[in-house]
Design goal:
6-stranded mixed sheet; binds flavin-adenine dinucleotide
């Protein structure tokens, strides 16, 4: 029996083998387009949403587009997104960016004071032999530095700025608190050199997808070289990988599909919630441990559109610093969640917009509130921090990444809990293979990147990695 199954599996070629990719985000699209380039013929993508892109979600707002998910290409050297588009003249370099540090009593810190904090942030890093959490490392090196800064003689400002820096680190690393963040998040991530915030010249991050797909980004529904291979509104409810033969997939509507290989790109949040039912038989213990140990944090965005420019010309954005007594009062009020907003900034080439970020548990909480309630809070925040009035916005938009069952969060991080479980991204990204080493169920997506997690370039690399794995396996087989 097993000989027969092996013969069947081994008789497949790039022409005949059936590959199903679950999820049409950056990693799924990267895997599918690469597989076609490599000569695989039967590649199908099943996507739960009614659109492609996943956590790349460029939508119309203001006078062009905004990104509810990925927004910037982070870096140039060793960044596959940058490499792919660098000759197309589609990216803008960030301009001069003046963020004002504003206190909850409306006081604006001087440039000299602000620069002390910005310089600290620019050089803060985690030492390889650091013990404890990123929060421990931050607090220690922060106070060491601040004690040498004579320009800052007001200890309360230093404390307020530390709270802000913590929120900033949480938003960059998608953790609820710096105390839960493992130093591995810093030590394993390899930053790509060059500009970190390259933007997509009013086209949004979907431009990158259209480059991968060779499609027209202005034509919704154009799937380019994946035409006819992308199946939207098809949430996969079960992946049956029992035995050694074909894999059976069940869609939410009862449809059944068969495949020889499955590349699963669903987010870590979806894996956390669904893996016991999604995989039959259950996943191996090391995989389950990595799903439990790693975290998909929540970071959400707001966009407000105004009739007139809401901030003075020179003010590109504000960082919110809470006075201790104001924070105490805030925590007892219905607007307690405003504490987790880092600040607001302008949007490139859209001067009538303001964009804000909120992190962690409060980001998840306000996903349950109505738009009106959230907007009421934001307008209160403007009144609290700014000495001038910000007009009522013309329109409002926000992301809700956690409550969407197809994501359950924004991007992944290493909490110290993953260290305790001695698990990580290699366990999460490793394929399920048969006795002969043939990949059966493979895993791609940002959380499965060892060095570029939480980014689009990391997700893309993992899609290519899994396509290469199959290509390697089929190398040298007769194409007939
Ligand atoms: C607010 C925010 C800001 C960000 N900013 C940046 C940034 O500026 N720069 C950057 O590089 N990165 C950024 N990121 C991260 C980046 O967006 C992600 O790392 C990347 O897009 C993830 O791609 P992926 O393919 O791994 O996953 P996803 O994009 O999540 O793709 C997985 C797909 O699987 C689908 N799916 C889920 N369950 C099922 C199922 N059962 N059956 C079928 N389909 C299913 C989902 O609908 C989804 O489309 C940001 C993310 C967020 C949320």
């Amino acid at each position: 029996m097993s000989t027969c199954v092996e013969e069947t599996a081994f008789s497949k070629t790039k022409e005949t083998t059936r590959i199903v990719i679950i999820g049409a985000g950056a990693s799924g699209i990267a895997a599918a387009t690469k597989l076609l380039e490599q000569g695989f013929k039967n590649v199908q993508l099943f996507e739960a949403e009614d659109r492609i892109g996943g956590r790349i979600n460029t939508v119309t707002f203001g006078n062009s587009f905004v990104d509810l998910g990925a927004q910037w290409c982070h870096g140039e050297e060793g960044n596959v997104v940058y490499e792919k588009v660098k000759d197309l003249d589609v990216l803008d370099r960030p301009g001069e960016y003046t963020i004002y540090f504003v206190r909850s009593n409306k006081e604006i810190l001087s440039n000299e004071q602000t620069n002390v904090f910005k310089e600290f942030m620019g050089k803060f890093d985690v030492n390889p032999d650091c013990e404890g959490s990123v929060g421990d490392a931050l607090t220690e090196s922060y106070w060491k530095e601040m004690n040498t800064q004579s320009i800052l003689n007001d200890k309360s400002i230093i404390k307020e700025a530390l709270d802000f820096l913590k929120r900033r680190i949480c938003s960059e690393n998608a953790c609820d608190s710096v105390s839960e963040l493992s130093p591995r998040n810093y030590l394993n991530f390899q930053e790509s050199g060059g500009d970190q915030n390259l933007s997509w010249r009013q086209k949004g991050y979907k431009k990158f997808l259209s480059v991968l797909l060779k499609s027209n980004e202005d034509q919704p529904g154009d799937h380019g070289i994946l035409k006819g291979k992308v199946h939207l509104n098809r949430r996969i409810a079960e992946i049956n990988w029992s035995g050694n033969g074909e894999i059976t997939l069940r869609c939410w509507n009862g449809q059944i599909f068969s495949a020889d290989h499955v590349i699963c790109t669903v987010s870590l949040g979806v894996l956390k919630e669904k893996h016991p039912k999604l995989f039959v038989p259950a996943l191996p213990a090391d995989k389950v441990s990595s799903i439990k140990g790693l975290k998909l944090g929540t970071v959400n965005k707001f966009f407000l559109e105004f009739e007139v420019q809401p901030l003075p010309e020179k003010m590109m954005g504000i960082a919110c610093l809470w006075l201790e007594e104001d924070l105490k009062e805030l925590r007892g009020s219905k607007f307690f969640w405003l504490e987790s907003i880092c600040g607001f900034h302008r949007v490139d080439r859209q001067p009538l917009l303001l964009e804000g970020w909120i992190i962690g548990a409060h980001a998840r909480y306000i996903e349950t509130l109505s738009e009106e309630k959230v907007l009421e809070g934001l307008l209160w925040l403007f009144r609290k921090f700014l000495s001038f009035s910000v007009p009522y916005p013309k329109s409002f938009l926000r992301s809700q990444w956690h409550s969407n069952p197809n994501f359950r969060g924004s991007y992944s991080c290493y909490p110290t809990y993953a260290d305790e479980l001695r698990t990580g991204r290699t366990d999460l990204g490793s394929p399920l293979v048969d006795v002969s080493g043939r990949p059966r169920v493979q895993f791609a997506g940002e959380a499965k990147s060892r060095t570029h997690f939480s980014t689009v370039h990391g997700a893309t690399e993992t899609g290519w990695r899994e396509a290469d794995r199959l290509n390697e396996f089929y190398k040298g087989r007769a194409e007939n």
